[in-house]
Amino acid sequence: MLTTLIYRSQLNSSCKSIHLASLVEKARHRNAKLNITGILLFNGYDILQVLEGSEESVIQLFHKIREDKRHSDVVELMRDYGPRRRFENVGMLLFDLQVKSPKSVLESVLRYSKLESYLASDDRVFKFIQTFITQKNPSPPDTTYNADKWTLSRENAPFGECINGVIAHQSCQFALQPIVEPGEGKITSLEALIRGNDGGSPERFFQAIDQDKVYEIDLQTKAYAFALAEKIGIGGHKIAVNLLPMSLVNVPGAVEFLVDQIKLHGLQPEQVVIEVTENEMISGFNQFNSAIKHLRAEGIGLAIDDFGSGYAGLSLLTKFQPDKIKIDREIVSNIHLSGPKQAIVRSIVSCCTDMEISLVAEGIEKIEEWCWLESAGIRRFQGFLFSRPQLNGVGDIHWPQVTR
Ligand SMILES: Cc1cc2nc3c(=O)[nH]c(=O)nc-3n(C[C@H](O)[C@H](O)[C@H](O)COP(=O)(O)O)c2cc1C
Question: Could you tell me the domains of the chain?
C-alpha cells in the first residue's frame, strides 16, 4: 500500500549543509532501487523529510534513518496512505532554505509535485511542507533538556525504612509511589496504590471481593492508606488515593467517613487528593456531582487520572475543572518520537495553564520522555524512571542531574 511518512529532525552541528547535499545525492540512488520517492527540506537547523513508497520499504528505511547519528530528535509527524505519490519522479531532492527564499522553495516543491495546486492546498503533506517553509526565523534548538546531558542519581529511602512485609489485620495493603518535581528536587505527593494481601494488583483484589460490597470496601480501604501515611510520617506531603466515584454516591455518609479517617490519622483534608479516572468521571457525572461539591467543601483535592485514555477528553473540562490532571501513560510513552503525541500534550499544557490546573505526567520510564515533557513545561512526574511503588513504604528516588 502506498505510504507517506513525514518526520522532522535536527541536523547535528558537525554535519554541514554540504554533507547533507552529498547524503541526499547518495540517498536518491538508493531510494530509486527501493522505489521510494520524496523530498528533504533544511533550514539551517531543522530537517523535514517526506518519504513515499510501499509501507514495508518506507518503514524499513525510516528505521535506518532514525538511527543515523548525523541528525537527532527525530520525530515522526505523519504516517498515512493514499492513492498516488506527490513526488512521482523525485528519488530524493534537497531544498535548502538558507540559499533560496521561502517563496521560491514553495514554488519549486509544487513544480516537482504531480499534485494539482488546487488539491495541494488541502493536502496534509503539503500543509506540513508549507508550515516548515514559511516558519519565521528558525532558531537553534534549546539543548537544556537533551537526554544525553542528564543522568540519574539515587536518593535512598527518603522516608526512612519501610514497614517490613504486610500489615496484619487489613483486607488489603498499599504501595506508595512518589510524584516528584525534579526541577525543585522535591516530592510533591505520594500516590497510595492498592494491593492484595499477596501483593497482587488492584484488579485482582477487586475481582476477589464480594461484588455487592465493592463500593463499601473501596471506601473503607482508604482508611488503611491514611493509617499508612501516619505510620511512615509523611509530614506536610500530600497523599493521593484512587476512588470509584460511585462509592461516594452509593455509600451513605461517604464524605464524612473520609474526613473522619483523614483527621483520625493526623492528616488535614487539604493534604488528601482523590483520584478519579476520566471515564468514571464522565459516565456518572450527574450522579456524583453533588458528592464532589461536598468533597471540595471539606477541602479535599480532586484529580483526574489517566487523562486522555478515555472518551471524554478536553470536553470534560468544560463541565468540571479538577485541581490536578494526570496525563495517561499511553500518551506519554515514547513522546519524544511522536509528533501527534507532542501536539496533544502541548494543547493539554496550554489548557491547564490557562485554567490553573496542575499537571502530572505519569508512567515515565525513559529519560528522553522526561526531557521532552520538561521542555514542554510539565514539572511533575510519576513513573519507574524516578521511583517504583513500594509496599508499605516509599522506595529510592532517582533524581535527574546534569552530567559534568
Ligand atoms: C537526514 C537524513 C536523511 C536520509 N535520507 C535517506 C534516504 O532518503 N534514503 C537513504 O537510503 N538513506 C537516507 N539517509 C541515510 C541513512 O540513514 C543510511 O545512512 C543509509 O540508508 C545507508 O545505510 P546502510 O549503510 O545501513 O545501508 C538519510 C540520513 C539522514 C541523516
Answer: 2-134 (3.30.70.100), 147-402 (3.20.20.450)
Q: How far is the CA of 367 from the centre of ligand 1 (A)?
A: 26
Q: How confident is the model at residue 161 (pLDDT cuts 50, 70, 90)?
A: low
Decide if pLDDT at 30 tops 70. Answer: yes
Q: Is 5 near ligand 1, meaning CB less than 6 Å away?
A: no
Please work out whether the CB of residue 65 comes within 6 Å of at least one atom of ligand 1: yes
Ligand 1 pocket residue status of 92, Cβ below 6 Å: yes
Give pLDDT, residue 312: 65
* Cα-to-centroid distance, 189 and ligand 1 (Å): 46
**41 CB near ligand 1 (under 6 Å):** no
CB atoms within 10 A of CB 314: 12
* Residue bearing the bigger pLDDT, 156 or 77: 77
The CA distance from 206 to 283, in Å, is 20
- Which pLDDT tens digit goes with each residue over 283-327? 777 778 888 899 999 999 999 999 988 766 778 888 889 999 999
Helix (H, G, I), strand (E, B) or coil at 96: strand
In angstroms, what is the span from residue 378 Cα to ligand 1's centroid? 34
CA dist list (Å): 290 to 295, 305, 308: 9, 20, 24
Q: Using CA positions, which residue lies closest to atom 13 of ligand 1?
A: 27
Does ligand 1 come within 6 angstroms of the Cβ of 29?
no
Q: What is the pLDDT of residues 258-287, one digit of tens each?
A: 999 999 999 999 999 999 988 777 777 777
CA distance 321 to 304: 9
pTM of the shown model: 0.92
Please choose from 12, 34, 68 the residue to mutate so as to test ligand 1's pocket, defined by most ligand atoms within 8 A of CB. 68
- Helix, strand, coil shares of the chain, percent, nearest 5, are 40, 25, 30
| Whether the Cβ atoms of residue 114 and residue 88 lie closer than 8 Å to each other | yes
Look at 139 and 23; give whichever has higher pLDDT.
23
How many angstroms separate the alpha carbon of residue 16 from the centre of ligand 1? 16
Contact 380, 181 (CB under 8 A): yes
